[in-house]
């Protein structure tokens, strides 16, 4: 009889195919988004209908971002769920993608 554990095993994905979807990674993207829009936590929380404490929990990664709130963020700030949860920037508007890249790289040094 064949060992069933071998049949049900999926091949491992490379780190390139499996972006960091942890609450902390999502929180870092939320912080980037907030910084791009020059908002504090109170302002962004109010714009999507949650408390500052709730938003802070998402940004620090102490609580996962739920799908309804993620949709509200996407609608309000023109980002995609793919970027928010996976960090994939391919479907973002180009100005936003460029702003994210600039923030990640920091200011250029001459």
Give the key terms.
globular; 7 helices; mainly alpha; about 110 residues
* CATH fold call: 434 Repressor (Amino-terminal Domain)
Whole-angstrom Rg: 17 Å
Counting structural domains, the number is 1
* Strand percentage: under 5%
* Count of helical stretches: 7
CATH class: Mainly Alpha
Q: Give the overall silhouette.
A: globular
The pLDDT mean sits at 84
Number of DSSP strand runs: 0
The CATH H-level homologous superfamily? lambda repressor-like DNA-binding domains
Chain-wise SSE layout:
Blueprint: H1 4-7, H2 23-36, H3 41-48, H4 52-60, H5 67-77, H6 81-86, H7 94-105
Helix pairs in contact: 2-4, 3-4
Please characterize this protein's 3D structure:
It is a single chain. The chain is 58% helix and 0% strand. With 110 residues, the protein is an all-alpha fold. The protein has one domain: Orthogonal Bundle (434 Repressor (Amino-terminal Domain)). Helix 2 (23-36) crosses helix 4 and helix 3 crosses helix 4. It starts with a helix and ends in a 5-residue tail after the last helix. Residues 1-18 have low confidence and may be disordered.
Brief rundown of the structure:
By secondary structure, the chain is mainly α. The protein has helices at 4-7, 23-36, 41-48, 52-60, 67-77, 81-86, 94-105. It has one domain: 434 Repressor (Amino-terminal Domain) (Orthogonal Bundle), CATH 1.10.260.40.
